[in-house]
Amino acid sequence: YATAQDAAKAAGIGAVSFRAYENNQHGFTKHATKLSRAFGVSVEWLVDGGPMPTEDPPALGELGTPEDLSDKYGIALVRQVDITYAMGDGSVIEDYPETSFIPFSLDFLRRFTRGATDKLFIATGIGDSMEPTLRREDLVMIDASQNRLGLQDQIWALTYAGSGMIKRVRRLTGGKVQLLSDNPAVPPLDANEDDVYLVGKVVWSARLM
Q: Is the pLDDT of residue 54 over 60?
C-alpha cells in the first residue's frame, strides 16, 4: 500500500488506530485478523515476527470446513460481530456484520453450553449498568440457541423498544418482566414480556487487564 491510510482502509480499521500500531503505542491483537487478511500474512507472524514469510498463509477454506476443524482438531470458530450491545441505556441493533472468527476449544465451550456452535457469537458491551459483573468494552459470548426465559435473574442479550442491551431478566406476574442492572445506581425497568425479545443468553465474558 502506498500510504498508511490506504493500508488502514484496506484492513477496515481507523487510520488513528493503524498509526498507533505502527508506532507500537498499543497492541493490535484486537485487529490482528483484519491486518493479516489485508497483508496476506498469518496472525502468528504479525504477533511473533521473524523472517518475512515467503509463502502465503493457507486460506481458511484450505484448512477445511468448520465441521472438519471440529472433527479433526476439536476446534470451533465462533463469529465475532460488529455490533455493540449496550450495558447501559441501549443501542440500536442493525444487521450483524461479521468481523472475524475466534477459535475456541470445543472442550472449553462445552463447559458452559451444549448448543450448536454456529448459534454462538461474540459482541462488545458498552456502558456501566452491569458493573462490576461486566465492564465497558468487555467481550461477551452470546448463545442464541438459548432464547427462552427459564431461571430467574440470568444475564441476557435482548432487544427492547428497538434497542439492544444486556440485562438480567426476572419474570413478574401479569405478563411482565423486569430488566435488572448489576449497578445499584441504575433502576430496574419493567416491561411487557411480549415486548422483550431474548437474542440469547450471555454464557461467557472476557476483558483486557
A: yes
